[in-house]
Amino acid sequence: MEDVVIVGAGPTGLMLACELRLAGVDVLVIERLAEPTRESRAGGLHPRSLEVLDQRGMLDPFLAEGRPLPGTRFAGLPLDLSGLPTRYPFLLVIVQRRIERLLEARARELGVRIRRGVEVTGLRPRPASAGAASPDAGAAAASAAAERVVVETTAGPVETRYLVGCDGGRSVVRRLAGIDFPGTPATTTSILGDVELADPPAEHFLLQRTPRGNFSVLGFEEGWRRVIVDEAGATVADWMAIGFEDLRAMLIRVAGTDFGMHSPRWISRFTDVARQAARYRCGRVLLAGDAAHVHSPAGGQGLNTGLQDAFNLGWKLALVVRGSADEELLDTYHEERHPVGARVLSNTRAQSALSAPGAHVDALRVHVGDMLATPDATREIAMMITGLDISYGLGPRVPDRDLPDGTRLFEHLRTGRPILADVSGEPVDGCLVSQLKGFGEQLLIRPDGHLAWKESLGREALSTALRPWC
Ligand SMILES: Cc1cc2nc3c(=O)[nH]c(=O)nc-3n(C[C@H](O)[C@H](O)[C@H](O)COP(=O)(O)OP(=O)(O)OC[C@H]3O[C@@H](n4cnc5c(N)ncnc54)[C@H](O)[C@@H]3O)c2cc1C
Q1: N or C: which terminus of the chain carries fewer CB neighbours within 10 A?
Q2: Residue 131: its pLDDT value, please?
Q3: Among 167, 215, 285, which residue has the most ligand 1 atoms within 8 Å of its CB, making it the best to mutate?
Q4: What is the mean pLDDT of residues 42-69?
Q5: Omega before 127 cis (within 30°)?
Q6: How confident is the model over 316-358, as pLDDT tens digits?
Q7: One MF term from GO for this chain (predicted)?
């Protein structure tokens, strides 16, 4: 019997697997694809994701393969990141294929088992009902009463204590567990292609709005460009095939040129459909990443939000699996991450509205653009898009700092344990905390770098704070 099965070896599933293994939990990842994807997909990591990787000692290979850019875009309008209060005030341009490769290498190094070429097809509670699974067997498996979940796969059943669906926007786990996915339908479809250009624009990152729609030509890596185009009033039905010629024709209509595109590597589409799982936890079944929220890629937030879901869930699930914390700790995952996902949906909807065609939106963009040029507005929006302003009720993230002994605060989070700074004595028997001296203030920092207690709250509150988190 497995302790935890993760469905999906995308960025979210791999990050979660790393977190669980770091905490000593045995974990099995089941992935439908026989080989890692060759699609480039997402284009970058935000400052908070870079901090998260730093807090686990995983950042260096990402920095070595990526390229820092001082800004990103909000609805296509420039958004400066260089003044943000972080060690990493930039967008690290690195495509998803590379991110997944680096995460998978780290997961394997930690001892995560990844079973590729296997698809999850069903869920049922244990003990299994006699005969064939009933249509709502998955929902029953997800119910609080079920003690174990049997995961049906194309390679046979797997029994597990906890199941996490990191299986993307069309999540089978979400559907089988009967979790609602409410939201708003698509208002536009964008076509994208990774192509070579005989006649590229001079700018490395070109984003333009024309009376016919929006287009961008993005230079993520040498040798090819990402071309994205949407056309006023054009949506493409899900079932319709889209090819290189459709991309070229739409780009010519919107941009007036095809930049001499040829040799496509990947052609795809995306929409601004925005949906969020009503519950991130349903008994022994949890959801993270795109399985829990889908939205347009505006602002490049999907992968980043998924990584940070995993970072919030991993240490909590590990404590529960090891019997060190009550199951209620898992509810804080929903309580803390659902509002974050809801805010991402909201700001991507706002970006969609700001990208719609027409003179009224043109006028609105002028005003929003002027506002975004002011330091306060830049900071507000940049903190939101990059996730640096996220606070979990108990407190915001604690920024990195240099310590008198020559180490950095984040380095002390690499074991995945909470940090107790400058508190003398043994605060709670048996608590696995990293003690830190010479910090300058008394703090309890959670394994995900968020504040759990500070001196001004009083010593009694420390015991209360330590109990659920460690
Ligand atoms: C054009 C584009 C640009 C983007 N740009 C950005 C960006 O710049 N920044 C950003 O943060 N995000 C971006 N995103 C979003 C980002 O790609 C997603 O948010 C991210 O892939 C989500 O990761 P995930 O691990 O949650 O899900 P996925 O990456 O979808 O991974 C899910 C995995 O589960 C597997 N799976 C599915 N069903 C099953 C099953 N039944 N059994 C077994 N395995 C299964 C799949 O094969 C897949 O490997 C972009 C998306 C697009 C389309």
Answers
A1: N
A2: 44
A3: 167
A4: 97
A5: yes
A6: 999 999 998 999 999 999 999 999 999 999 999 999 999 999 9
A7: FAD binding
Residue with the bigger pLDDT between 203 and 135: it is 203
CA nearest ligand 1 atom 31, residue = 10
Residues near ligand 1 (Cβ within 6 A): 7-13, 30-33, 41-44, 96, 119-120, 166-168, 172, 192, 270, 289-290, 297, 300-304, 306
| CB-neighbour burial class of residue 377 (10 A; exposed 0-12, middle 13-18, buried 19+) | middle
pLDDT interval class at 234 (50, 70, 90): confident
Please list, in sequence order, all residues whose beta carbon lies within 8 angstroms of the beta carbon of residue 300, skipping any fewer than 6 positions away.
42, 43, 44, 46, 72, 91
For the stretch 76-113, pLDDT in tens is 999 999 999 999 999 999 999 999 999 999 999 999 99
Q: How far apart are CA 372 and CA 426, in angstroms?
A: 49
- Using the atom order of ligand 1, give the atom closest to the CA of residue 121: 41
pLDDT at res. 369? 95
* Residues contacting residue 54 through CB under 8 Å, at least 6 positions apart: 87, 88, 400, 410
In the chain, the domains with their CATH numbers are 2-183+275-353 (3.50.50.60), 189-271 (3.30.70.2450), 395-469 (3.40.30.120)
Q: What are the structure tokens assigned to 85, written together?
A: 């209060």
In angstroms, the CA 399 to CA 412 distance is 13
Ligand 1 atom with minimal separation from the 290 CA: 26
Secondary structure (3-state) at 173 = helix
Give the atom of ligand 1 at the shortest distance from the alpha carbon of 306: 26
Give residue-wise pLDDT tens across range 275-287.
999 999 999 999 9
Whether 276 contacts 341, CB under 8 Å: yes
**To test the ligand 1 pocket, which listed residue (6, 35, 41, 53) has its Cβ within 8 A of the most ligand atoms?**
41
Q: Which amino acid is at 181?
A: F
